[in-house]
Amino acid sequence: MAKGDQIYVFRPYLEIQGLYEHHGIDCGDGTVIHYRKTNETISQTPLFTFSHGLKIYIREYVKGFCFIPDTVIKRAKSRLGEQQYNLLFNNCEHFATWCKTGISDSKQIRDFLPIITQFDLQKLNIPIQESLKITDHNNAQKLVNEAIASIKVIWDDIQPKYQEKIKEVETWEKVAFQALKNNRDDLAREAIKRKLESKKQAKELENQLQQLATMTENLVKNSNNFTALPT
Predict the structure, then answer these.
(1) pLDDT 10s per residue in the chain (231 long)?
(2) In sequence order, which residues have a C-beta less than 8 Å from that of residue 224 and are 6 or more positions away?
(3) Which residue in 23, 100, 120, 169 has the fewest CB atoms around it within 10 Å?
(4) Helix or strand run (H / E) with residue 18
């Protein structure tokens, strides 16, 4: 490890070992800047507080732009005290990647959480609502795990469809522009029509993603409550 490195550890998440990566920025002085799970605040803490004694890994950026170490740490310190944690859009990995590359990104979220289409989102709400009524936190935890499992199952099938719609919007816009340059108003009108259809579908997917974000946050908060209960 070195000053300015993006480091991470595998922490148990929902009782599943190795599912959750916790990321931070190594300050090179025995401290790490990261989004603390306990208070959802960007903090500078001792290395052991970050790692919990777990093995530490370094996120490698073999290709692509990265800031120099001093700039990485300066960027990290500029957000100390921030309390805008969001599992899907602003988690610990988003923060650390932004410090390192300037791009807020979380590979583990892209790989795991889906954008849901052709799926009854209320079905995922059922185990959440049921878990709120259960006093046995082990059973409640099981329901939360089942809800997240339902999300994971459909990810590989649905996510490419969303990406395809985004690309369609860009493609039809280019086609319309080229048609206008060629004085083909008929083709331009048809391309614009197709663009608007794809844009509408993409917006529907975006709304569904926001629903999923809310439900996922509820799942995480419920899980935190379960683990805080005495056993």
Answers:
(1) 899 999 999 876 544 444 578 999 999 999 999 999 888 899 999 999 999 899 999 999 887 778 999 999 999 999 999 998 877 678 899 899 999 998 887 776 665 554 433 344 455 455 445 544 545 555 555 666 666 666 555 555 566 676 788 888 889 998 988 989 889 888 889 989 999 998 888 878 766 666 666 666 666 555 555 444 443
(2) none
(3) 120
(4) strand 16-26
